[in-house]
């Protein structure tokens, strides 16, 4: 009967509340957030810069195990001399264990490559600003729900292993960009250096970065209650800057194993071997451990800087406009009073003329 059914429901409810006296339900929030974000998918935008031939495209292919540069055309010497910086964007969708990542790679081919390199990073700077501008517009627009985030979250800056530390163009470029993007410097083609050379070049570059006041991406400080092992790993990461990297597009067979590597007459270099390079450390940090922090710093610091500057210049423009319109109002009033005065003078003259006419009559 109906009353029996009602009793059963009441009993079930009682049981439920008895069991879960301490349980409101918000403990499921993380899994709700998780489900929602997983459904939405993740986006990450990575930019690479450095002169042509330093192994940028090879490293990107190695990092994301995909051939992004299949249709790439390498410019000849003549084209390079007059080359302007073409910014090329590749977007790929990667899926791992049901998690989707829309990865965009922004390549700056020819950067630092032409004969006249004066402010060749200007194009890179403009590109980063344009993405901020677009985001700022979208955020202030009507369709704020579906904004596509194209802001650049990280810049891998390739430094040549053949020079003595940073070149002037590296310093100028990084200084121009460090307020706009998270810069991670890389020591390219590390297999062309001995272990001691890698060590001394890293020290020198870190010193120069400090000396020239370049603000590269800062790894977040560990909390004091953090696991000791984790703290040690973070310190190793900080001490490895600039990451010495090696890239390869081919698989090598050696001693019964198959791996991404470079084969030389004297031996084989393994891209993913931590003894041979910092490649694995870079990939882990980019993908596994610091992707979200790179995005947070982009949003909270670099984008906020841009936004503040935008709002400041908009306010300045508005004040100037108001001053200008106030000025024109004052001009109008002055003119109005002058006209009034002239009118009064005319009226007085007219009156005097009428009086003198009347007198003659
Ligand atoms: P990009 O112009 O900076 O994109 O450079 P590429 O990726 O096209 O590489 C230019 C040349 O350097 C190619 O012949 C690559 O095989 C080679 N190369 C790429 N990465 C490495 C590396 O880590 N070590 C060495 N020795 N050569 C590399």
UniProtKB/TrEMBL annotation:
<comment type="similarity">
    <text>Belongs to the TRAFAC class TrmE-Era-EngA-EngB-Septin-like GTPase superfamily. Septin GTPase family.</text>
</comment>
<feature type="site" description="Important for dimerization">
    <location>
        <position position="162"/>
    </location>
</feature>
<dbReference type="GO" id="GO:0005737">
    <property type="term" value="C:cytoplasm"/>
</dbReference>
<keyword id="KW-0342">GTP-binding</keyword>
<keyword id="KW-0132">Cell division</keyword>
<protein>
    <recommendedName>
        <fullName>Septin</fullName>
    </recommendedName>
</protein>
<feature type="domain" description="Septin-type G">
    <location>
        <begin position="40"/>
        <end position="313"/>
    </location>
</feature>
<dbReference type="InterPro" id="IPR030379">
    <property type="entry name" value="G_SEPTIN_dom"/>
</dbReference>
<dbReference type="GO" id="GO:0051301">
    <property type="term" value="P:cell division"/>
</dbReference>
<dbReference type="InterPro" id="IPR027417">
    <property type="entry name" value="P-loop_NTPase"/>
</dbReference>
<dbReference type="InterPro" id="IPR016491">
    <property type="entry name" value="Septin"/>
</dbReference>
<keyword id="KW-0131">Cell cycle</keyword>
<dbReference type="GO" id="GO:0005525">
    <property type="term" value="F:GTP binding"/>
</dbReference>
<keyword id="KW-0547">Nucleotide-binding</keyword>
<dbReference type="Pfam" id="PF00735">
    <property type="entry name" value="Septin"/>
</dbReference>
<keyword id="KW-0963">Cytoplasm</keyword>
